[in-house]
Design a protein that fits this description.
The chain is mainly α. The protein contains 5 helices and no strands.
């Protein structure tokens, strides 16, 4: 039996104050991915049958380069946020949860950086 009042107990059970930020980040990245994904799909369709030189010419356009880098960054950040929610909700062991959360962040950064480096390498020679 505790000497604390009901209000006192509830005050100590508050959220980590990170949920709202995470929720908004997921929504903002989802909304950003709609036009970026449409642009990516239409660009990929337009590039069907184009040779390497034509692709490099397309990629050397500053707008296309910026949009593809933005698409990759937002895509993998959104992926990381989603996998984090699934991990927090469905992985029950505390050690396993921490390992999966760390691995999720590391892989998201790795894939983001790898894709951006690949795009920049193609765009600027290589």
């Amino acid at each position: 039996m505790s000497m604390r009042s009901d209000l006192g107990r509830v005050r100590g059970l508050g959220a980590a104050k990170d949920g709202t930020t995470h929720w908004w980040a997921q929504r903002v990245t989802a909304v950003a991915l709609v036009p970026l994904s449409l642009w990516f799909v239409f660009s990929a369709i337009a590039l069907v049958g184009v040779d390497v030189v034509g692709f490099k010419t397309w990629l050397n356009d500053a707008g296309n380069l910026l949009l593809i880098v933005l698409f990759v960054g937002v895509l993998f950040y959104h992926m990381q946020l989603g996998i984090q929610v699934v991990t927090e909700d469905y992985v029950h062991g505390e050690k396993a949860k921490i390992i999966w959360l760390i691995l999720n962040k590391i892989l998201a950064v790795f894939f983001t950086v790898s894709c951006i480096i690949a795009v920049l390498k193609v765009a600027f020679g290589g």
